[in-house]
Amino acid sequence: MAQYRIVSGSVAVISIQNPPVNALSAAVREGLLLSVRAAASDPLVRSVVISGHNGPFCGGADIKEFGNVSHLESGPHLVEIFESVEALAKPVVAAIEGFALGGGLELALACHYRFGHSEARVGLPEVSLGLLPGAGGSQRLPRLLGVRAALDMIVTGRHVAAGEALKLGLLDRLTDGNTVDAAVRFAQSAEGKPLDDRRLGNRPCPPLENIDAFFEEALIHARGRARGAAAPLACVQAVRGAATLPFLKGMELEKRLMETLMTSGQAQASRYCFFTERGAARWTTPTGARWDTCRARPISTAAVIGLGTMGRGITVALARAGLSVVAVETQEHQLDEAQRAVSRMLKGGGGVSYSADLQAAAGADLVVEAVFEDMAVKEEIFKQLSSVCKPGALLATNTSSLDIDRLASCTLRPEQVLGLHFFAPAHVMRLLEVVSGPRTSPQTVAAAMQLGRRMGKVSVAVGNCPGFVGNRMLKPYLEQAYFLLEEGASPELVDAALEEFGFPMGVFKMSDLSGLDIGWRVRKEEGLTGPGVTADQPMRTRRGRRYSPLGDLMCEEGRYGQKTGRGWYLYDRPGARVARSDPWLRSFLEEYRERHGLLARRIDQQEVLERCLYALINEGFRVLEDGVAASPQNIDAIYVFGYGWPKHRGGPMFYAAQVGLARVLEGLEKYHKAHPDSPHLQPCSLLRRLVASGSPPIHKWSEVVKGHRSQL
Ligand SMILES: CCCCCCCC/C=C\C/C=C/C(=O)SCCNC(=O)CCNC(=O)[C@H](O)C(C)(C)COP(=O)(O)OP(=O)(O)OC[C@H]1O[C@@H](n2cnc3c(N)ncnc32)[C@H](O)[C@@H]1OP(=O)(O)O
Q1: What's the predicted TM-score (pTM) here?
Q2: 62 CA to middle of ligand 1, Å?
């Protein structure tokens, strides 16, 4: 697992060999330490180069070992190995190709010199796994770069390109050629030279003025980045240790902090997210289609129909993935404006042409319809596309909730029709729901999943039902939030509870950002509000269940959110982003409660969380029961990458498992008893069955789900 060879007579080349990313598994650690000792004791060896086999230097510690302390403890510890590397009396050069991440960069920091390929990238991304760089990285990096630059890298976990790393002083040299050959030549030139100053553990941290104020500020910043997450705060504490303590004391602090994080639920949740993200690519459908058996036809040309905000973002995402795109907008003034906006986002033309005529989509391999949410309009477009587009072209809709199968019925190629549910802004957000209807072919799903990967998206294959997975689960969450306002809560209270849980924005701020009118239009389409509702119908009941008209009333007042400068909050002007409490809303809610004979009661944050999150989770179990999502992991990927669910809480289904399924069930039963007219609070049968089977771990839920009808 670590190759050892002597080249040019005096250079020991140690090559880490553990495909695909050369992670530092127990076997690699064993091999590394043996190789370092061999190099130390061989009198012929005068210098050492450490590299990665077949490309990447090293992707860090083996994350698969993290769930099991006995795995972590088998083989030598990284700290011990890196100490031996740093202490070697012969120059050690890291030859970095591909990437040096986490433990991989920590290894490079223990080397005396760092050579990088010009396309390599380096980083300490442990924070996104709920950890800190716990093999000396939090102590060595600040000594090399200074506190500011090191803290930025450690707290954000960002990958730094080779050019920037050279400027920062993290890499000593770059090469466009063979990195190992260049490192070997350099190692030979360094043979016999003093090394003391090259050992970062020997160096003091560059001094920093106003150190207390600096770290206070850093803590506030870290808290704001990911609310409730422990790892960013521990990273700040560790770097503070580097700035204020001798190296060995700093290492002790790093170790203590790492042990606490490593055994925490947050690290477990973040690790789960890491594998969930990658697992989504291994999609399956109940018809037997699988990611590894289905050949996807490549897509190289696309057409986007409708150039509103979504259509523009989709055009940019497709063009950035290297597709040649024709963007179609039948309204001329909108077309000009969209062309300017897309060019700005792409910083130039970027393989996009524009047309006001749907015929321009004739030659595309894929068409994405992104007009506004109106079934009749979409049906008409799909009818036209069916005859305009070449045979074999895939026809996708970017609807966020409408029936894919109904659109497929308007075409002569229902097996080539699917949903591509992008999230706004489409060129930024990582999630893509790939929605298949009952007639969508496996090849169509395969092609869409492959395209999603090319766009850098986390693509999740889901089935067809109103709202698919994400928006279907969002509905009960939003509904409970409205009910809580009726019962006495304020938007500020609800949002504070959710933000403290870790969402970047509470439900009402989010609603203001995306526009209250969107949900209003959907509710009108569903016949829940608007002209279809007769005056004799009770205002707070629809189809025998509790309904809150609060969102509709807000829209009737012209309060659409940020775009109108007024929504659940007040904004300085239309389009402004800073939300302020609005006294008008307080009186509006008071009058509303009075009109409907509702008595405001004290509501605490725990009730907010339980009502909103348990209702959402309950719907998640229904989604699994119906087979609309293939696994709880897929649901969690959707929520983490599309809806801001905090990574350190793993996703709604993981959170339910962590809280305890029995406790979630008990909570739902309690709230359903108090609100029997709210069916979303009625525990679903899958949750009951899971609890009855002893609440198995999340990766075993599928065994309980099995046997149920599936719509995928
Ligand atoms: C009781 C307390 C005791 C305390 C003891 C402390 C011990 C720990 C001490 C030191 C701290 C060091 C910590 C770390 O190093 S944590 C790891 C840091 N590294 C990362 O976060 C990098 C993660 N990987 C990536 O970002 C990417 O994979 C990539 C950029 C390296 C490559 O990207 P790409 O080419 O797109 O490939 P994939 O992402 O699809 O990955 C391919 C494949 O490889 C698996 N994989 C990737 N990285 C790792 C890894 N570090 N360990 C194990 N497996 C890894 C990945 O899961 C994919 O496989 P698949 O899931 O089967 O598809």
Answers
A1: 0.95
A2: 6
Using CA atoms in the order 130, 167, 99, 66, what is the torsion angle rounded to 10 degrees? Answer: -20
CATH fold of 605-705 reads: N-(1-d-carboxylethyl)-l-norvaline Dehydrogenase; domain 2 (1.10.1040)
**In angstroms, what CA-CA distances link 589 with 78, 486, 599, 674?**
59, 7, 11, 22
What secondary structure does DSSP assign to 42-69, as a single string? -TT--EEEEEETTS--B--B-GGGTT-H
Let me know if 126 is a catalytic residue: yes
Q: Which amino acid is at 559?
A: R
Mean pLDDT of 611-639: 96
Supply the pLDDT for residue 295.
Answer: 86
Side-chain-side CA neighbours of 398 within 13 Å: the count stands at 27
Omega of the bond prior to 652 within 30 degrees of 0, cis? no
Q: State the DSSP H helix or E strand holding residue 686, giving kind and residue range, or none if neither.
A: helix 685-692
Pocket of ligand 1 (CB under 6 A): 20-21, 23, 59-64, 69, 72, 78, 99, 101-103, 125-126, 129, 131, 134-135, 258-259, 262-263, 275, 278
Instruction: Among 16, 58, 63, say which to mutate for ligand 1: greatest number of ligand atoms within 8 Å of CB.
Output: 63
Among this protein's residues, is 106 annotated catalytic? Answer: yes
Specify the fold of 2-262.
2-enoyl-CoA Hydratase; Chain A, domain 1 (3.90.226)
Give pLDDT tens digits for 651-665: 999 999 999 999 999
* pLDDT above 80 (res 174): yes
Q: Which of the four pLDDT bands, split at 50, 70 and 90, describes residue 286?
A: low
Ligand 1 center from residue 59 Cα (angstroms): 5
Q: Which of 406, 389, 394 is nearest to 368 (CA)?
A: 394
- Check 65, 86, 97, 126 and give the catalytic one: 126
Q: What is the pLDDT of residue 401?
A: 85
Closest CA to 683 of 662, 704, 668: 668
Q: E strands of 223-370, at which residues?
A: 301-305, 324-328, 352-355, 366-369
- 489-595 under CATH 1.10.1040.10, yes or no: yes
Q: Is pLDDT larger for residue 487 or for residue 518?
A: 487
